[in-house]
Design a protein that fits this description.
Layout (H helix, E strand, L loop, with lengths): L9 H14 L7 E5 L11 E9 L5 E9 L6 E9 L2 H14 L4
Antiparallel strand pairs: 1-4, 2-3, 3-4
């Protein structure tokens, strides 16, 4: 079973995702996913959903949950942002998020 996200408000999806991560021992170190957009895209939209780690300026790592335009891959908007403290945690959060949202 996965989290249904298409067309739903981010305020509904991200708390579900945070519970999913916590239940699988992949909870971000500082806080769960912070909401960066109002809604997840509809499945019919010409967009991809992506999750990837980004190294911060100091010791932290950030996990970006984003929508990428298929028409122009340089266009993307963040849906959520999570912070953690090490590479392994960042990659684990990415993997578990991808499983939760059925992106694999």
């Amino acid at each position: 079973m996965t989290i249904m996200w298409a067309g739903r408000p981010a305020a509904e999806v991200l708390p579900e995702l945070s519970r999913w991560l916590r239940d699988r021992n992949a909870e971000p170190g500082e806080y769960g996913f912070t909401q960066m957009a109002e809604r997840f895209p509809d499945e019919s939209a010409r967009q991809w959903l992506a999750v990837y780690p980004v190294r911060g300026d100091s010791e932290a790592w950030y996990v970006h949950l984003a929508v990428i335009s298929r028409a122009n891959v340089q266009e993307h908007r963040l849906l959520g942002l999570a912070k953690t403290w090490d590479t392994d945690s960042a990659w684990k959060i990415c993997r578990v998020t991808a499983e939760a949202l059925d992106l694999l």
